[in-house]
Specification:
The protein is of the alpha+beta class. It contains 8 helices and 6 strands. A two-stranded parallel sheet has the order 1-6. A two-stranded antiparallel sheet has the order 2-5. A two-stranded antiparallel ribbon has the order 3-4.
Length: 222
Amino acid sequence: MVGNGATDFEYDISPSFPDIAYNFNLIPKKLYDNYTKEGCKRYFRDFKPMQGPANCMDLWNQISKLTQGLNWYDLYRPLYPESLSAEERIGKTIIGGEEREYLRGHTFREFTPFLKHLTSEPVPGEKMNVYGSAVSDYMNLNETRTALNIPTDVQTWSECMPEDNTNFTYHIQSEGSIWIYPFLKEAGIRILFYSGDTDGAVGLAGTRGWIENLNWPVKTYW
């Protein structure tokens, strides 16, 4: 099961964003028509040169300007980062009668460590912008864990661990994860892939594109 996964960079993220922006009435039809008519195509992190004539970059910049400041991960939700100190980010909960600590929310740098070039290191002593602390607080409630039948010996929940507490490392590759789906299919492993319909980052338009490009037979249309 994969949720909002960047799968094929020929379709996902930058290539599909103009379609998403247009479908949300964020850019005018004339701008969208000019971009698509010219065959423009921008790629995530510029891993391939932009397709189309020279004016494509100007059209892309117009799209970017009209959509800047939006919540790229949920186009219906405003941006509302909290400013928390390092001490305020440490939450406490009681699990199995024992006090446990957890990290509240995530910074942009923690959530997207593959975009380090766009973020700066936190300054010691200064507050940092944090997203999702309410989710962390809710998931670490004893009542929530009990309702989800999570054993008391399981660690506290954190959406994204800071890099110094994990051995997980991101590697960017041009094909994304599309390569693995034929292997899963051949092995008879069933796949559930879902996309958030208000997600501007890895949106529904890109998901539909690479699934159609697989050209697998449709057993039941839904």
